[in-house]
Task: structure prediction
Amino acid sequence: MQRREFIRICAATAAISAQPAFSAAEMKPRFYARAQLVDDRKRPLKAAKLAAGENYIFHYPFEGTPCFLLNLGRPTVQNVALKTEAGGVYLWPGGVGTDRAIVGYSAICAHRMSYPTPQISFISYRDRSTASKISRPNTIHCCSEHSEYDPAAGARVLSGPAPQPLSAILLEHDRATDALYAVGTLGGEMFNAFFDKFEFKLVLDYGADQARRRVSGQTPVTTLQSFCKQQVKC
Ligand code: FES
Result:
């Protein structure tokens, strides 16, 4: 996702904001350090290597803030109008990659901030093969109180108590090399509240001061299965 693309998106957002349903403040992308997504051996991750339906985890924009990287296996909706709990409005631009199927989202649930830890995760993406009677297919489902998000439409809330979409992680795809980069966020960040609520746990899992350290240069990607000992599937 290039900055010039955001100029177009912001202009579109401004047009939407003029409508009565979007009278609140327009939100702009927040750019952090550009970080290349790499594998567990620090080799550049290739978009074509991402298995459709797999839950991948990386950390961005801080060392202790987990994110989902998903290949949805189908093109995403583009320019989805979304709104945060505080009333901020923004346009989610869509996925990246050759068929725009690759998306990134903060894995911190927008309800009570359940998130994947090395020990356990209550939140994950379910495709058709892993959905249950409770979780709809092709959604990110949080088993804590059953908030459900649509990753093909900016992680808008489909059901449950979450008051806003998951914060989107802005990705860039280099068509020449097939490399992926995280460059920023869009939507309702919850990082400050997250650090305040889970400070003790984050120190245990990531080390003192490490969780709040900003990612730069590279960020490793692994599967949720490798990152986390136990996945709760409701
Ligand atoms: S923390 Fe995810 S639904 Fe409550």
Summary: Helices lie at 3-17, 191-206, 224-227. The pocket of FE2/S2 (inorganic) cluster is lined by residues 109, 111-112, 114, 142, 144-147, 160-162 (CB under 6 Å). Confidence is low (pLDDT under 50) at residues 1-22. The first strand starts at residue 30 and ends at 38.
